[in-house]
Amino acid sequence: MGLFDRLRGRGGRRPGRARGDERPATLDRGSRRSDLAHLEQFVASRRGVEGYVEPRTAVTESTIVLVAADGEWTRRRIDGPDVARRLSRELAIPVYDAQVTGYPQRMREWSARQKQNRL
């Protein structure tokens, strides 16, 4: 069983969701294999990466923000906080709850530099 199989779970159910779970659907799509591949590539190509899990809302599915040591970041959908924790174990990165810890200052500084460079 590969990394994607472990993260996505078997069958048509989403990981962490019990049969008969009737949570209302969001307006957003769920995560895809390409989302997980992007996260894996981001971690492999950057140093000091940390994950910040964002909760599911009425509009979007759960997401994870990966932030590198230099502040570069990326956001992708995931199938819930349990998947984020498994992903962090597989990729050997720390993961935090964004609602509890907030985001690192280096992420905001990197975004500001990118905005300045576009001007």
Report on this model:
By secondary structure, this protein is of the alpha+beta class. It contains 5 helices and 4 strands, in the order H-H-E-E-E-H-E-H-H. The chain has helices at residues 3-8, 33-45, 81-91, 98-101, 105-118, and strands spanning 50-54, 63-67, 73-77, 95-97. A 4-stranded mixed beta sheet has the order 3-2-1-4. A hairpin with an 8-residue loop joins strand 1 (50-54) and strand 2 (63-67). The longest helix is centred in the C-terminal third of the chain and has 14 residues, at 105-118. The protein is globular and about 40 Å long.
Topology:
Blueprint: H1 3-8, H2 33-45, E1 50-54, E2 63-67, E3 73-77, H3 81-91, E4 95-97, H4 98-101, H5 105-118
Parallel strand pairs: 1-4
Antiparallel strand pairs: 1-2, 2-3
Strand arrangement, largest sheet?
3-2-1-4
The rounded distance between the terminal residues' Cα atoms is: 47 Å
Number of strands: 4
Outline the low-pLDDT stretches.
Answer: 10-22
Oligomer: single chain
Descriptive labels:
single chain; 119 residues; alpha+beta; 5 helices; 40% helix
At a glance:
This protein has helices at 3-8, 33-45, 81-91, 98-101, 105-118; strands at 50-54, 63-67, 73-77, 95-97. With 119 residues, it is α+β, with helices and mostly antiparallel strands.
